[in-house]
Amino acid sequence: MRKRLSAIAFFILIGSVYSWACTNFLVTKGASVDGSTMITYAADSHNLYGELYFQPAADHPDGATREIHEWDTGKFLGVIPEVAHTYSVVGNMNEFQLAIGETTFGGREELGSQSGAIMDYGSLMYVALQRAKTAREAIEVMTDLVEKYGYYSSGESFSIADPNEVWILEMIGKGEGEKGAVWVAVRVPDGYISGHANQARITTFPLNDSQNCMYSKDVISFAREKGWYEGINKDFSFSDVYAPVDFGGARFCEARVWAGFNKVADGMDQYINYAKGLVEYDTTNNFATNRMPLWIKPDKKLSVKDVMEMMRDHFEGTELDMTQDLGAGPHRLPYRWRGLTWEVDSVEYCNERAISTQQTGFSFVSQSRSWLPDVIGGILWFGVDDTYSTCYAPMYCGITEIPECFAVGNGDLLNYSETSAFWIFNTVTNFAYLRYDAMIEHIRERQAEIEGKFIAFTPAIDQAAKLLHEKQGPAKAREFLTQYSVNEANNMTDDWKELSHYLIVKYMDGNVKKEENGQFLRNEYGLPASPDFPGYPEWWYEAIIKSTGDHFKVIEGATH
After folding, report:
1. Rounded to whole angstroms, how far apart are CA atoms 526 and 261?
2. DSSP labels for 344-379?
3. Distance from C-alpha of 296 to C-alpha of 277, rounded to nearest angstrom
């Protein structure tokens, strides 16, 4: 009998503390409209404040060290030697257009802790970004670090992209009494896209193809020593051995990958039962047999806007559509307050876990473009709060300053800031939750307007920066791009604050103010026109009566 930490148990275990539950998609050059590589990342946690990290490039003297603090908690884990030079990093992208994202899959419970380990998954990402120029180098840096200093986290999937290649790295520690991790990294074939969302996805992998696959020397032998695998090497499945998929892994995690794939490729209906948690297993080794492929070919090449929209999904138009069941309420709200599972009469039920969720701290779409100088080619399209209603602002990887609206220290989860994008965007979304079906239309319209402007301006900004780079050097290009990124992000936040003012005026107290040609109406005497009182849809009233019977029935002949 396998001992493992199921996805349901994993969510319950971490839900009371951090609730990390993220979503990544990966896009190769041949799958994108313009030949860029892209990865996405939604950092979803009830305890994560949305801000944009920044580390400038730096030189370090001989003997310098670096403290490692767990990303989730800030806990001090230990010290490692610093390298002579570290690269500039904006969020999750460095100055060489290298980008890294992650999702936690947990995996086997007995591998979830390792005494004395120093490197947690967050530190691996940000240290690698400061030390590597390419995806392959990042994999080498990350795996060398865990081999030398131990792996502090549970199972993790990493998305790693440079301007030419896109890789998935999956890693899990060796548990107590051991040091380091077992891992596999595979390159996504050009022309294809992939994704992962809190469930390990690498199954079998090529054992003799170093151009497209790397793995730890003991990834199979370690499993044999533990008694977890007895088959032949070529049939070894990393996920099925170290993080077997179960109902929760499919319904809460893989369903998000399925939803993203379903937006850009036909034929995903064949995996709907798997996405619903109906996992089938073989009788020989208990491996899952009806899993989705690790990568697919999209029906058409994807633009950066297409990829942004992949991150905006509540299963609309599918059997799992979160806007259609009674839990959405009268205004079709596609969110459910936690926990993820609940009971009625001792029977356990679940909420859906969509790509778009209310507890997102920040998210991004990275874009790495090989035909431009590095400081210009890399764009981290960065947003805060819920992916469905955020705006992705272009943060060029060569910038040397972070916008005030995204700056670390500009507010936190317990301190509101009038200039913080995280707080301004949350002000809009949390008010919109009250009458979602009406207000989300205004939000999406403004979002499309702002993002459309950013995307339309990008070629001109690229060209201007490239000319500066050629004529006056990289420093001038960086200065120009910094000014552009900072100004646009701060202006976007101001625009969103105006949107919050508009929404509160229009939808105050459940009423709807009348408008004409973009102006609120007044009556002939100059006073505000009487608002509309839309009430609730008929189907909601019917649901109330079905639940309460005659409790609200008006009795004929009753007097006041």
Report:
1. 53
2. ETTEEEE----SS-TTEEEEEEEEE-TTS-HHHH-E
3. 20
Which residues face 296 on adjacent strands? 193
Residue 353 near residue 340 (C-beta atoms within 8 A) = yes
How far, in Å, CA of 240 to CA of 219, rounded?
A: 13
Residue 328 half-sphere exposure toward CB, CA atoms < 13 A = 21
- Using CA atoms, how far residue 3 sits from 178, 202, 241, in Å, is 18, 20, 10
Q: Where are the domains of the chain?
A: 7-350
* Residues in CB range of 334: below 8 A, 6 or more apart: 314, 316, 322, 323, 328, 354, 356, 388, 436
In this predicted structure, what is the pLDDT of residue 338?
86
Tokens of 345: 């009469």
Q: Is the pTM of this model over 0.70?
A: yes
pLDDT at residue 2, rounded to an integer: 37
If the chain, 560 residues long, is cut into consecutive pieces of 10 residues, what is the mean pLDDT of each piece? 44 41 95 98 94 98 97 94 98 98 96 94 98 98 98 97 98 95 98 98 97 98 96 97 96 98 97 96 92 98 98 97 94 93 95 96 98 98 98 98 97 96 98 97 98 98 98 97 98 98 96 94 95 94 95 80
State the burial class of residue 456 (Cβ atoms within 10 Å of its Cβ: 0-12, 13-18, 19+): exposed
User: What is the DSSP secondary-structure string of 129-149?
Assistant: HHH-SSHHHHHHHHHHHHHHH
Neighbours of 26 (CB within 10 A): 25
Residue type at 111 in one-letter notation: L
CA distance 297 to 30: 10
Would you say 304 and 455 are in contact if contact means Cβ atoms under 8 Å apart?
yes
Which pair of structure tokens corresponds to residue 58? 């730096």
